[in-house]
Amino acid sequence: MARQALSVEIADQLRRDILRGKLAPGAPIKERVLAEEMDVSRTPMREAIRILAKEELVLLRPARSPIVANPSFNEIADSVEVLRALELLSGELACTNATDAEIAQIRALHERIAEAYDRVDTLDLFEIDMQFHIAIAQASHNRALSDTHKAFLARLWRARYLSAKQRRSRDRVLRQHGAIVAGLEQRDPGLVKTEIAAHLEALLDNIRRYLDAGEAADLPEPAPSGMAPACATTAGERSA
Amino acid sequence: MARQALSVEIADQLRRDILRGKLAPGAPIKERVLAEEMDVSRTPMREAIRILAKEELVLLRPARSPIVANPSFNEIADSVEVLRALELLSGELACTNATDAEIAQIRALHERIAEAYDRVDTLDLFEIDMQFHIAIAQASHNRALSDTHKAFLARLWRARYLSAKQRRSRDRVLRQHGAIVAGLEQRDPGLVKTEIAAHLEALLDNIRRYLDAGEAADLPEPAPSGMAPACATTAGERSA
DNA sequence: CAACGGAAAATGGTATACCAAAATTCCGAG
DNA sequence: CTCGGAATTTTGGTATACCATTTTCCGTTG
């Protein structure tokens, strides 16, 4: 028996396509078409779509094609607010529960980010950044917390990725990461929480700036109603 | 087109069965058998199981029957800790964002609980209690928050239900609910947060007490139908 | 008698066929 | 030329059949 792989694999692929922009926000997800393209049957494709729906990367509409989520800034801000609460709790718990080895690993990730910052592709850098934040959540030794935190990170993946792509805050990011690590090493919840809050505040600022710029420059391509043809276009681009 | 109903309906039914104890913690969920029993095909049954898995009411195991979740006290405590963070944020935001009408509705629910406390079935009372807490989260006007909060409430449904069934804390519950409502009416985040924290602290105490008593009295009743050996085995592994 | 091995049954994952509702298209009336 | 409605097409939901792996249990063997 294939170890529960196919639908998960499909979900991973779809997620990548969404984040890379191959499937634009607002574009419909036609399970039949995508299943054909990926050469799988509709059943695992359906499951994959459900997985992404649970991550809020796609929106399920009753009796309609699911569409790629296209959250407004306010919706993103709401998610960031929840993420902040989760990360603050993570930081606090990690100060108590993390092992020295875990903290050392978090520092290692921080240094890996610093070392790679100007060297690697944004997406790769972004992956390491995700690991950094996930590692902190896991250091809380609270599975419910780290899982939920991970889910929100996934949900905000696109927004965070677009923010990271700007690369306008190298120094700030590294400084804040460093401060968080230092706070963990000193087991100082206050310090950790302060820095995490500042970090997320800056993230939100970055996203706001990007969306403002994007609106002016037609970046977020709203695709509200007239995207029926856009659908075909996007689907066509997909195979390219 | 059936409005995406069947799998959701099945999920609701399964959830009820789980919470009512018809499907004991640790019992395997055989999609074929259950589909037969409910007279539906395996496809929507599968989806229903995934829905419940996402709520962490059932555990998906690779290449094995899913089983009804049987969280340890520590796992429940972890979830409650996250729930607390979510409810604290909800309360704080609700003080700023809630409309007067929403707060009035929350008060109405509180009074309905007080009125019904000694009159109705535990499960019914519990439903109203859920509505009360959900209403507060929704009053935050943060969809990501209220949705996540709702998910955790669902995840903790069984533990909270078992706690509520004891009915040992009528006065405390009503007093705390009243204080939360008062805090909202005064738009006093400090008061609201204090009371919510106390409320959840008490919940956790209640759950701990129940589980302690249950362990002594063999409460986690083994599976009713013929899957006794598998149930015992799995449950044993789980807690280990 | 216990331990091991293999055949058979059971089970979850996948593919496909069918159905009903919704969206779209197309034709005819005004 | 426009508008309305019916037929067609499209699409998601459901049922069922098939496959691969896992589990179970019995017979063999040391």
Q: How is the largest sheet of chain A built, in terms of strand order?
A: 1-2
- Estimated structural class of chain A: mainly alpha
Catalogue the unreliable spans of chain A. Answer: 218-240
Report strand % of chain A.
under 5%
DSSP strand tally of chain A: 2
Main sheet specs of chain A? 2 strands, antiparallel
Largest interface: A-B, 28 and 28 residues
Q: What portion of residues of chain A is helical?
A: over 70%
Instruction: Figure out the total of helices of chain A.
Output: 11
Which outline of chain A best applies?
globular
Oligomer: homodimer
Mean pLDDT of chain A: 86
Integer-rounded radius of gyration of chain A:
19 Å
- Helix and strand pattern of chain A: HHHEEHHHHHHHH
- First-to-last CA distance of chain A: 32 Å
List keywords for this structure.
11 helices, about 240 residues, mainly alpha, 2 strands, about 75% helix, two-stranded antiparallel sheet, disordered C terminus, homodimer, DNA-binding
